[in-house]
Amino acid sequence: WVHDYHLSLLPRMMSEEEAKIGSRLTKKIFYLHIPFPVSMIFKEIEFGATVLEGILHADIVGFHGFTDARHFLSSAKRILGLSHDSLEGGLLGVKYKGRTVVVTMSSVSVEPEMVDAVMDFPTTISGAEELKSKHSGRAIIAGVDVAQYLSGVSLKLATYGRLLQDSPSWRDKLVLVQRCLIPGARRLDEARTIREIRGIVSQIKSKYGDGVIDYEEVYGSSMPIDQRVALWRAADCLFSADVRGGLNMMPLEFVFAQKGKDSPGIVIASEFSGVFSILNGALRISPYDMKLTLATVDRALTMSKQEREGRHLRDIDFVSSSGSDKWIQGVLRDLFDQTESLDDGEIDSEENRSSEGKSVGAFLATAQEEQFTRLRSKSVISAYKSTSKRVIVLDFNGTIVLKQAVDSYLKRDSAGSTMDAPPTDVINSLRVLCADPKNTVFVVSGDNKENVEQAIGHIPGLGLAASNGSCFSPPLREGSSYRTWLALDLGVDWASVEGVALKIMAKFTARTNGSFIKRAHSSIGWSYYSCDPEFGSLQAKYLVIELERELAAFDVRFVNLKGIVEVIPRKLNKGIIVKKILRDVAARNNNAGVDFVLCMGDDISDEKMFTSVFSFVSEMNEDYSNVVPSPPVIQLSQGTLLASQPFLLEKPVLRCNNQNEQIYAFTVSVGKKESHASQYVDDARDVADLLVKLSSGKRASFRRGTEDEMHLMQFS
After folding, report:
1. Residue 388 CB: number of other CB atoms within 10 A?
2. With the CA atoms of 265, 266, 269 and 271 taken in that order, what torsion angle do they form, in degrees rounded to the nearest 10?
3. What is the pLDDT of residues 454-477, one digit of tens each?
4. How many angstroms separate the CA atoms of 400 and 425, rounded?
5. What is the DSSP string of 405-468?
6. Which of 125, 526, 549, 705 is the most buried (most CB within 10 A)?
7. d(CA 325, CA 109)
8. Is 35:245 a contact under the CB 8 Å cutoff?
């Protein structure tokens, strides 16, 4: 096992010695603990290709994060012309001289038993109390960094000085406890950096007093662990501003040391540090973006206790259970598993892998749809007022809740809570609409029923459908606080499906930092929303391939949306529950029918809702034997249903008494894109605006389309 860049040539040297005796005696691991440079660096140095070839003589090449692995793979491609492929179980492989060199990413944490013991040292306890007493009445920002340029200490101090300048209220409430390590390894860099740091510290103290900063220099490569842990226990947040950093254990140690605190501390980590890809609860900064960093520091200091606890919980399991022993076992397992599979010839050929990949694209593709027009709220309101048997079906995330943008920093804003609630005006509008006996209002979500009920389940008269419609709760009666939940029987042995899928997903979860398994009724998902976006997408692609192979005997399908791969029954989609709702409402009051439908959604999973509306309209007054009935309904929870809501048994009657009435059907996509919907609005704000106007009757301003009249579908 070869560690770090100093010994990059050693794997090749060992292979050359083995070649002399004609026998391969060892399996070799090369692990890099610092950031791997971009390919341009290897082009600029004389022996760049030699260094890469030295590393590639190992059987396993390991990194702590996908960014470093990506730079390595890119360098191998650009310098040596080597391509890479994904292997079973979430590993990557590079073909080199007839061998497959496995590239793996795994992270190591602190030694939990050792830090636990140190937390109980008398010197640790007294040290923490002394710091709190010394800086009584002030929030403590902690920082322990090597006094070198790449640590970004000067940028951190400059940002702190600007915070005190721009926010005078913090001057008496805040202190930065900064410790700078001087190891003596890079004397010129350290001397220059220390001189700059001392100058900034002096300026801050002269302007705002000695109380705002507690600065000390420590000679050596580390600070005594009891002093470090004492600082972590006393601090409210840890501030790291690395310009470029590898694995730094101090933020992990800080997270562990927050155990048992009433309000856990927050880690502020540079996006250029290795630890940022490990800690999902950390706040991200760029040390070069002072404005963003100032806002992030202020957010950390004013963060609620609930959010602090949520962010701490996202990291403490990994930090507490990923010591060096587990890390070593994981790397060795990857080595032996992969070399055995290579010896047995179990790696798929590139041609087979390519053909398997075609099935992945099939479920991501959407059909070509005709262009559609912007929704005119004026026409919707007019149709709403002229009808009396109305059904309103709304998606949740992205429709009545504004969806967060998915970008290259996907993980930075992943919510600590389970589910966001709609804005107050949407909640109030839904209350009014649900109170109208002429309306049946349902919200259909892909999330589990517990989260949906927590977010909007308190609204009287509102029906809920969760897990993409596999389970649903009829409208809540006024004055009732207990919901009855029903489910659609889709004919799948779900316990057996979960048993197979969980084993595969657990394997990918162990090898993909930030991923987790999400279970719901008739759905099991692998979430990579908080992973490195590029690596998460890559892992998701090959997870689907493995799931397709192992679950071929079951009537299930795979959906890859919004950073999650889901396994669901093949028959399940949101359209089934929407058609069920429409049929049941139409059967009320002696088959009075439906004369107004408003269906709104924002992504591909909502397309089936739109087509089910058209299907329902086309089957009106059709003989029941000519249509596919809705799946049987089973009751999940205790409770009673209103007599006017016969959801437990679908009536075999489709002929309605309003045959000569018009039916107004509005299918609306949130966001202009290819869709089966007839109209679109720009985002969830337009949805909120429409709901407010429907509930109030007011004709407030709404963005107009290019046409004077909305494309309104009328069916006779």
Report:
1. 13
2. 160
3. 899 989 999 999 988 889 998 877
4. 10
5. P--TTGGGG--SSS-PPPPHHHHHHHHHHHHSTTEEEEEE-SS-HHHHHHHHTTSTTEEEEEGG
6. 526
7. 10
8. yes
